[in-house]
Amino acid sequence: MRWLLLCCIGFASAPGQSADRPNFVIVFCDDLGYGDLGCFGHPTIRTPSLDRMAHEGTRLTQCYTGASVCTPSRAALMTGRLPIRNGMCSSKRRVLFPNSKGGLPASEVTIAEALKGAGYATGCFGKWHLGHLPRFLPTRHGFDRYFGIPYSNDMDRVAGSPKGRQSFNAPRSKYWNVPLLQGEEVVERPADQTTITRRYTDAAIKFIDAAGDRPFFVYLPHSMPHVPLFASSDHAGRSPRGLYGDVIEEIDANTGRLLEHLRKAGKSDNTLVIFTSDNGPWLAYGAQGGSAGLLRAGKGTTFEGGMRVCTLAWWPGRIPAAKTSAEVITTMDLLPTLCALAGVKAPRDRPLDGVNVSAALFGTGPSPRQQVHYYRGSELFALRHQQWKAHFQTWGAYGAPPKHTHHDPPLLYDLNADPSEQRDVAKKHPQVVARLRALAKEHRSGVNAPPSQLEIR
Ligand code: MG
Fold this sequence. Notes:
Elements: H1 2-8, E1 23-29, H2 48-56, E2 58-64, H3 70-79, H4 111-116, E3 121-125, E4 145-148, H5 166-169, E5 180-182, E6 185-188, H6 196-211, E7 216-220, H7 243-264, E8 271-277, H8 304-307, E9 308-314, E10 323-325, E11 329-330, H9 334-342, H10 358-362, E12 371-376, E13 379-385, E14 388-394, E15 405-414, H11 430-445
Helix pairs in contact: 2-7, 6-7
Bound molecules: magnesium ion.
């Protein structure tokens, strides 16, 4: 039934062209900060593989997520739409929990569904967090294969495990009874989190090999470095940055292993790999959380540190090498971009917030994106137009005491001159403020929000 629906809205494949179709890999870290990679300026975390990826590809310094916390950010990536359009956000419950009954609606079209309809092999290896009931799992949203945890690695805390933050200082997998799924079956519980980064990568590599000559889409949403942090014995205790550094270095090594596998398999000249994060660092966890570098604040906020993420794009021969691009893009742009590169029509029967940014990735033209919308839950808190960003409301970090403030006039920052959002220039630029206010009003009037999936219990 659903397949028929997909065909009707324009996903019919063109047989015989699959050999020309590029492969896609999206490595999506969890709570990785903008400043946590060597190639994004971290002084002590060693990321030689990602530095090499940057050297062979393009570093994107102005890439945004669709939200500053896990569930809505993942929904945005998968659907190319702001979560306000599909019920995947809430100001009351900001993410899905083990007692949630909601999830990504079946009516949404994911990247996997769009590409699968064109003959792609599709696999998801990692944290899903778009609904853990069977009808919401990756296998029901276009993925042929799934291996991973259905929600965050700090959920299902076991009674009697150390209280509060103590459990994060010396974490043990058994403190959280998180299930590990293969397809729709629980194959391990609690998931052994110490080896999970390597096992996701192993599964992705195996899947790529099994795809043979078919084009593939691999979605690799690591559950690290979301707290509690775990590193394998190969990496634990090595980084001068402590356990957080060990975790990033393990992600680095495994990303390197994946890229090396693509090279050896002769697929590197036909594979686009994007490496990025779902949101900014969880600063409330101190040394267990990451760093947003020069950006203000982190996860949970609509400041730059919450939603601008360190991003690398790699496709030897297509994406310029050793380049830094300040083109403004978002993770929502990946759905229309990947569809365009695969020769597949993106859904046309609904508003998409993503735009095709392939010219920006290939260095052949500017990003068509003019605006960035910063939502906290179901409310538009800030808007960027060109280099200007207006904050209509602000709220403190996720997990920290709330300091909710309405700003009238809004705070205005020039992100080209002041990426750290330190100097409010609203008084100097009343016309810019008026323009951003009008754009926010226009945006709000164009959104019809369905009931929230995150509030269903
Ligand atoms: Mg996250």
